[in-house]
Amino acid sequence: MSTDAPTPRRITVNCPTCQGPALFAPENRWRPFCSERCRMIDLGAWANDEYVVPGQPVEADDDIPPEGMRH
Ligand SMILES: [Zn+2]
Fold this sequence. Notes:
Blueprint: E1 12-14, E2 21-23, H1 36-43
Antiparallel strand pairs: 1-2
The chain binds zinc ion.
Zinc ion is lined by residues 15, 17-18, 20, 33-35, 38.
Protein name: DNA gyrase inhibitor YacG
Subunit structure: Interacts with GyrB.
Cofactor: Zn(2+)
């Protein structure tokens, strides 16, 4: 149930794109996304015809840069 010593190894977060579990660890280079695909979708690569996302209206939040991608 609860523990006073959280293990930082297997932290998962909800992927911002697909809301699925995404491993939040250095081994997941796409964190906080679950995969490259979800990350690219969030970055807007879907518009390049490279990634097809049927039935997914996308609203770009340009005011909120992804973590680690601040300019
Ligand atoms: Zn995802």
